[in-house]
Amino acid sequence: SSELTLSVSCLQPSCFGYPLSIFFIVINEFCERFSYYGMRAVLVLYFKYFLQWDDNLSTAIYHTFVALCYLTPILGALIADSWLGKFKTIVSLSIVYTIGQAVMAVSSVNDLTDHNRDGSPDNVSLHIALSMVGLILIALGTGGIKPCVAAFGGDQFEEEQEKQRTRFFSIFYLSINAGSLLSTIITPILRAQECGIHSKQRCYPLAFGVPAALMAVALVVFIIGSRMYKKVQPQGNVMIQVSKCIGFAIKNRFRHRSKEFPKREHWLDWASEKYDKRLIAQTKAVLKVLFLYIPLPMFWALFDQQGSRWTLQATTMDGNFGAIQIQPDQMQTVNPILIIIMVPVVDAVIYPLIKKCKINFTPLRKITVGMFLASLAFVAAALLQVQIDKTLPVFPTAGQSQIKIINLGTDGATVQFEPQLQSVNVMPMESTGYMTFETSQLQSLNITSGNKNIIKVIELPGENRHTLGVKNNARDIVAELLFDNVTSKPEEGNNLIRFINNLPDTITVTMGDTSFGILESLSASNYNLFPGGRKDNITVIRNSMPCSAISKALGFGSAYTIVINTCSADTLNVTYSEDIPPNTVHMAWQIPQYFILTLAEVVFSVTGLEFSYSQAPSNMKAVLQAGWLLTVAVGNIIVLIVAGASKLSEQWAEYVLFAALLLVVCIIFAVMAYFYTYIDPNEIEAQFDEEEKKQVEKDQDVYEKQAEADSRM
Predict the structure, then answer these.
(1) Mean pLDDT to the nearest integer, 138-149
(2) Transmembrane region positions (predicted)?
(3) In the chain, where the domains are located
(4) Tens-digit pLDDT profile for residues 350-403
(5) Which of 113, 149, 474, 527 sees the fewest Cβ atoms within 10 Å?
(6) What number of other Cβ atoms are within 10 A of residue 424's Cβ?
(7) What stretches of 304-333 show up as alpha helix (H) in DSSP?
(8) pLDDT tens per residue across span 690-700
């Protein structure tokens, strides 16, 4: 290994020498984290809108993927420490990772199977299969290299470069946050673009393609630095030693279970026949910490729902921030932004304040508070969900029908739903909301307007919405029953628009770039989808004469019927009938729950790793790292189990369930923490060193005495 170092001029009086190789490692980490978080940011929406999965399946597959990403690091650590070494492991798994990202980008190309060019893939199964292959490769790649990169960076420093190594880890973690923050802002913007060969769609290939390209860059950058790296040979994995020690102790204890064998102080002492005291003592310390890890997965079960349930919650909200339109998946950026702000604030302000109040805020108390805060964040999410649910439209269930009335005439109208169900008065040029009826009971409509009256017999198919257009013209009452082919609120903040021609002539209608075709008098067009938050130009051509007007701002997630009333001398008069109200709850209302959850993360996550490292011997850090990552994996599996088993139809109730579960776990953890006694592993190590020293001295004495005795003979 070459000892190339770079002297970096700094603001400090002295200059620090950093190995040039670590710059390649930091750039590699930035690109890799950009790639991972960028892909993950748009993943749940890709499942929902491209693969057409429902919310529950999208959430389940998302959390399965995240769980897999946190299970594979154990595999990566074993490969690196016992077989390939860190460098070869990073390179080989980065290749797997890059292929996975590329497969993911290809799987999202709509035109791959869109043979009839209707804008949706004809063979969804192929896209699903490719996506799953891509995600498995990505999970293997990102998880496999996760435990290696930071440690490989640490290997580049000499013993005397402790200060530089510490600073390297700070820069390293900064590059992780910078990568995740930038990608969570950029990839949702790329997704929101429209692209495609035959039909324009949300641009998932670009949203997945850019992370794939950055992963390729990360791999190339890492390989370029190859000659400069200090490559430590694989030393064998401490996890394997610990596992063997535990396994032997259990086996040995089972063999000697009869009462004739004396009990030992700790069940791990049964390994003393084969393993030295130091390893047994270290394993005891590790198991003591790992026991405390048992309740921790519940925290991650809530925390990782930012990318699934909370992103889906944002799709039903208003993302209009004035000049900027925020995409639902961009709300996740609130977390890394707040992390960057809050880590120094908590360290420099909040902890010292607590200390001044004479409160002993031990690491385990911090973790307990972190769990409580995460639970609180989900209560906030539930309260917000209740507000959102109030704005969501109610659609007819089986056996029900809904009807709304639009009065297209200049006289008031009264509609009696027969037999004797309900009577409604509708003012001229106005409309009602949707009214719900049992389909089997509704037989006819008795319509009165001015001095005229008609009875319209109706047979409705049920489980649908209908609009009744009523107009009293000079001769008679015209009543047109329209079928509203809308069964759900428009997704992704889009709006549905249709037109009714209230003119006596046939017209042609265009809105923006979308043509609604030719409309006969008193007929309606089909609904067309428009991006939310825009004002579009409406153009009507009547008897070869155009007239136009700018539509009003229609918000996000709404459906409107626009009635064309007059079109003359270039002036167009329209009225709007709201079929589905726009999203009215603003996305900014998600910030409080993100704030509480990020505060929970700062108190919980940072403290958790710090506590683990302070309570275990230095050579056991890898075991604890594996245990910590395992809690994240198990947390994501808990989401699958709870969401699958709860069968709650209301989303707010699921949030409350998760909050309650974490609160219970938090109480259990608080009890466990109360009985925990802190240890100083360095002291224990020093004791063993002392004992070994004495043993060596003793052996030396025996050897010298023996030598003396031999010389006398």
Answers:
(1) 90
(2) 6-27, 34-51, 57-80, 87-106, 126-145, 166-186, 206-225, 285-303, 337-354, 366-386, 591-611, 623-643, 655-676
(3) 14-236, 276-391+596-698, 400-580
(4) 888 998 988 888 889 999 999 999 999 999 999 999 999 988 899 998 889 999
(5) 474
(6) 15
(7) 309-314
(8) 877 887 888 78
**Is the CB of residue 370 less than 8 Å from the CB of residue 601?**
yes
Q: How far apart are CA 137 and CA 409, in angstroms?
A: 63
CA 444 vs. chain centroid, Å, equals 50
At residue 607, the 3 state secondary structure works out as helix
Query: Rounded distance, CA 360 to CA 543, Å?
Result: 83
**Selection from 59, 24, 20 nearest residue 651 by Cα:** 59
- Cα–Cα dist 62/43, whole Å: 7
Residue 263: both structure tokens together: 């009990």
Question: b/e for 259-275, b at 16 or more Cβ within 10 A?
Answer: eeeeeeeeebbbbbeeb
Q: Which CATH architecture has domain 14-236?
A: Up-down Bundle (1.20)
**CA nearest neighbour of 418 among 469, 373, 368, 458:** 458
**Pairing of β 495-501 and β 477-484:** unpaired
Cis peptide before 531 (omega within 30 of 0): no
Nearest to 423 by CA among 414, 436, 431, 412: 414
Please tell me the distance from the alpha carbon of residue 551 to that of residue 635, in angstroms, as a whole number.
Answer: 48
Interval 557-590: pLDDT, tens: 899 999 999 988 778 999 999 999 998 899 999 9
Cα 312 from Cα 250, distance rounded (Å): 47
Number of Cβ within a 10 Å radius of residue 315: 24
- Only one residue has tokens 């683990």, namely 612
Nearest to 328 by CA among 492, 86, 206, 147: 492
Dump pLDDT digits (tens) for 301-330: 999 999 889 999 998 888 888 878 888 888
Tokens of 504: 């006596």
Q: What are φ and ψ of residue 472, in 5° steps?
A: -95, 100
Q: Same CATH fold, 276-391+596-698 and 14-236?
A: yes
Rounded to an integer, what distance in angstroms lies between the CA atom of residue 284 and that of residue 135?
37
Find out if CATH 1.20.1250.20 is the number for domain 276-391+596-698: yes
Q: Which two tokens stand for residue 483?
A: 């079928």
CA 357 → CA 127, 352, 360, 673, distances in Å?
Answer: 58, 9, 9, 22
Dig out the tokens for 448 from the structure: 């009165």
Decide yes or no: CATH 2.60.120.280 for domain 400-580. Answer: no
- What's residue 13's pLDDT? 23
- Three-state secondary structure string covering 72-123: HHHHHHHHHHHHHCHHHHHHHHHHHHHHHHHHHHHHCCHHHCCCCCCCCCCC
Q: Regarding beta strands 400-407 and 422-426, do their DSSP bridges make them parallel or antiparallel, or are they unpaired? A: unpaired
Crossing angle between the packed helical segments 204-224 and 21-45, to the nearest 10 degrees: 160
Collect all residues with Cβ–Cβ distance below 8 Å to 623 and sequence separation of at least 6. 238, 239, 242, 286, 290, 616
Helix 621-646, helix 607-615: angle, nearest 10: 140
Give the span between the Cα atoms of 193 and 206, in whole angstroms.
9
Which residue bears the tokens 């910030």? 591
